[in-house]
Amino acid sequence: xxxxxxxIGLLAYRIIxxxxxxxxxxxxxxxxxxxxxxxxxxxxxxxMRVRHTEIDLEQHVTIESMTALLSEARLRFLYAxxxxxxxxxxxxxxxxxxxxxxxSRIRVREELLFEVGVxxxxxxxxxxxxxxxxxxxxxxxxxxxxxxxxxxxNLDKVTKxxxxxxxxxxxxxxxx
Length: 176
Prior knowledge:
Layout (H helix, E strand, L loop, with lengths): L5 E3 L2 E6 L2 E6 L17 E8 L13 H18 L10 E12 L8 E8 L6 E10 L5 E13 L4 E3 L3 H7 L7
Parallel strand pairs: 3-5
Antiparallel strand pairs: 1-2, 2-3, 4-6, 5-8, 6-7, 7-8, 8-9
């Protein structure tokens, strides 16, 4: 494990850009941190290939690169739902917690399927869940939960989600 990570028992964490990243690494058994998702949560899929710039000396994806891939998958999902990073009112979704469970090492040039969904939304936030599998074998290699909040950049504080964002994230709650 790189020196930049601090250990809490078997759980590694690092603060990157103000976000605390918890990573349950291979071989660790941190049962409290296990991510279990219902398959009906996933409503969006995207495929990405691991690039040479995203690996370490042992040819495996780094946690920083995995975080970037998760962000890219989230942004593709939000774009597909019509949600801008920052809207005209200068409000946008920010990630304040990331939970990552890596089950298998990921190598360069592997194609990964990112399945994205949203856990139940509340007034000022919710959680985006992501399951990552190898395209060719179907093996689940990682799972993540990104907790988000609505942030007003004019007021410089967390605010409630507007109805259109809630509807875009969790449309079946608004159908009659």
